[in-house]
From TrEMBL:
Residues 159-179 are annotated as: Disordered. Transmembrane segments: none annotated. SMART domains: PUG (SM00580), UBA (SM00165). Residues 110-151 form the UBA domain. It holds the Pfam family zf-C2H2_OTU1_C. InterPro entries: PUB-like_dom_sf, PUB_domain, UBA, UBA-like_sf, Znf-C2H2_OTU1-like_C, Znf_C2H2_type. This is UBA domain-containing protein.
Length: 413
């Protein structure tokens, strides 16, 4: 098919002639063009007057603005060379030319000169500023900037705007211009808010993704660190075992050498082995004696409860209770200091002194039971077998009795 138009490879605008392409290149700096079999159209929007040169451009304009009606001013024509004259109905800018009964004369759009100058000072090209002022009502700079943001993707945004001479744009009243400007500002604000929300959503997704990647990397690094620690510890254990085995073998060889020099058999005799076992057992016993005794906490709590109950059961007898507690303390102390003496491990309950000082008070005999005393077969004496002497229990009993004797608030709190 023969080419019907030229297309700018940079911005995609459709051009009718070579001269129009040259004019477009001078205005935009674009220099790459290609032939197209799509005819250049002029679909003029009935509501805003925007001219669209293709069906795709009109579809885009309709989606953005909601405008649905247009007039097809001119049909398609083939490409004209630089020296050829364009169609009588089309001028060098690709717009309908005057002089015929079927076309209207187009003239440059007129806008507020002061506002146009301000927009040029802001950096907007004259053609772009003119279109923005013309389509936004021409009375509000903010509305013009908003219109530009709404139409920044238009292909002919930087081309000179021509409007029909016989149909000048209707001048808006101040109220209408203000309303239109407010509407444009609202649309721009809504679009910006949508873009900001979308940007924030994408940023939040990126933050979550990055956070997950960092957490995964940290977890993997921690796993590798723990693995390296386990491997290092395993190597240390193996090295220690090898070193210990080497030292043990060296000691064994030295022992054998010493026994050979002394004329003894290399292996230990049965008597020597038994002596070694006794030494090991003695060492174990010594280690047990060196260990700190574990105090029976539960027995201590029961003893304290008995002493508190004794004080509550005998109100006003503080001196007699003090004598009872001192007697119990002396009995436990004697056994603690002399666990092998039978006289300290035996208490006759029928003794008048014991009856008066100890047995007369509720809970005193039970306290001796907790300390390790047991009743004999007749039930008149308390005894503590030598193998039942528990120094830790006696020590706890002494602590509780000392607390009862020396703490002025004992049994009150």
């Amino acid at each position: 098919m023969a080419a019907l138009s030229l297309k700018c490879d940079i911005c995609g605008v459709a051009l009718r002639s070579v001269a129009e392409a040259q004019a477009h290149g001078d205005a935009t700096g674009h220099a790459a063009f290609s032939e197209s079999t799509e005819a250049v159209k002029r679909l003029v929007c009935r509501e805003c007057g925007k001219a669209c040169r293709s069906s795709n451009e009109w579809d885009l304009h309709s989606k953005r603005t909601g405008h649905a009606e247009f007039d097809d001013k001119v049909g398609g024509q083939g490409i004209l060379s630089a020296g050829e004259a364009p169609c009588p109905l089309i001028n060098q800018n690709g717009q309908p030319a005057g002089g015929g009964s079927q076309a209207e004369e187009l003239v440059p759009a007129e806008v507020n000169a002061d506002l146009l100058k301000q927009m040029e000072e802001m950096g907007f090209p004259a053609a772009r500023a003119t279109r923005a002022l013309y389509h936004s009502g021409g009375e509000n700079l903010e509305a013009a900037v908003g219109w530009l943001e709404e139409h920044q993707g238009d292909a002919d945004l930087d081309e000179p705007l021509l409007v029909p001479k016989s149909q000048p744009k209707k001048k808006l009243s101040p109220e209408e211009a203000k309303a239109q400007a407010a509407e444009l500002v609202r649309k721009v604000r809504e679009r910006r808010e949508r873009e900001e929300r979308e940007t924030e959503r994408l940023r939040e997704q990126e933050r979550i993704r990055a956070g997950k990647e960092l957490a995964l990397a940290a977890r993997q690094e921690e796993e590798l660190r723990l693995k390296r620690m386990v491997e290092a510890r395993q190597r240390e254990k193996e090295e220690e075992e090898r070193a210990r085995a080497k030292i043990k073998a060296k000691l064994e060889e030295d022992r054998r050498e010493r026994r050979r020099r002394l004329g003894l058999p290399e292996e230990l005799t049965e008597e020597e082995r038994e002596e070694e076992r006794r030494k090991v057992q003695a060492k174990v016993e010594e280690e047990k004696r060196r260990r700190l005794p574990i105090k029976p906490v539960e027995v201590g709590e029961k003893m304290r409860t008995l002493l508190v109950d004794m004080k509550k059961a005998h109100p006003g007898q503080d001196d007699a209770l003090k004598t009872c507690w001192q007697t119990l303390l002396k009995m436990c102390g004697n056994i603690y200091a002399n666990p092998g003496e039978d006289k300290f491990r035996r208490v006759r309950l029928t003794n008048p002194a014991i009856q008066q000082r100890v047995a007369a008070f509720t809970g005193a005999v039970d306290f001796l039971h907790l300390a390790g005393f047991q009743r004999d077969a007749g039930g008149e004496n308390l005894e503590m077998p030598a193998d039942k002497v528990d120094r830790a229990v006696l020590e706890v009993a002494g602590e509780q009795l000392n607390s009862a004797l020396n703490n002025p608030f004992f049994g009150i709190l």
